[in-house]
Amino acid sequence: QKEVEQNSGPLSVPEGAIASLNCTYSDRGSQSFFWYRQYSGKSPELIMFIYSNGDKEDGRFTAQLNKASQYVSLLIRDSQPSDSATYLCAVTVRNYGGSQGNLIFGKGTKLSVKP
Amino acid sequence: KAGVTQTPRYLIKTRGQQVTLSCSPISGHRSVSWYQQTPGQGLQFLFEYFSETQRNKGNFPGRFSGRQFSNSRSEMNVSTLELGDSALYLCASSPFTGNQETQYFGPGTRLLVL
User: Which of B43, B88, B96 to mutate to test the interface with A (most CBs of A within 10 A)?
Assistant: First the structure.
């Protein structure tokens, strides 16, 4: 069973701090990694994707990928109360033919940023 | 550009009934994926349609089915509803199959089975 694991939280950080969200995955053949943000009662929205080992920065967000450790993380710098949401990690899984197929999602980490 | 639309937004059914949900993708998008989201299991992939063909299927029973029309609109059907089918059903569209980096979710249909 291919899995994506996340700490459910809640993760509470003060405004202005760095929030660190972590995710591990089981399928070594996965090649694409995504972070979604989901506000309560809303649908998920894509905030970052990463394909290669290392860091990828986009504004206050940095995604980090370590394929050897099967680990993906998301750092949110200068956290704001508006960042309070559930963050979902998603990973593509290999089809039987070896191509990249659908997304497997973690259950999400709830982040709370306190003013 | 209009986003992904789903109808209906809310639905109440009883056990044993069947239900059909509709998803209209973003204009020009040809891939539609369906997901089920519950508090216990999280977001789970149901199936993906591209150019009217099912390209991928998740691990759900045969009671869950779907189809896609020539205009890329998609429907999913759940027959013989069970209490555990109560969930938020989300569809997502992207221009091509396997194109998750440009995948956008609709607002969802919240289904309650009594």
Answer: B43
Q: CB–CB of B101 and A106 under 8 A?
A: no
In the β-sheet with A71-76, what is the strand arrangement from edge to edge? A4-6, A19-25, A71-76, A61-66, A54-58
The residues that bridge with B94 in the sheet, in sequence order, are B31
Q: How far is CA A40 from the centre of its chain?
A: 17
pLDDT tens for the 114 residues of chain B, in order: 679 999 999 999 999 999 999 999 999 999 999 999 999 899 999 999 999 999 888 999 999 999 999 999 999 999 999 999 999 999 999 987 777 778 899 999 999 999
pLDDT of residue A100: 64
Stretch A3-13: mean pLDDT: 92
Q: Is B98 on the interface with A (CB under 8 A)?
A: yes
A43:B98 CB<8 A: no
Q: Any CB–CB contact under 8 A between A107 and chain B?
A: yes
CB contact under 8 A, A43 and B105: yes
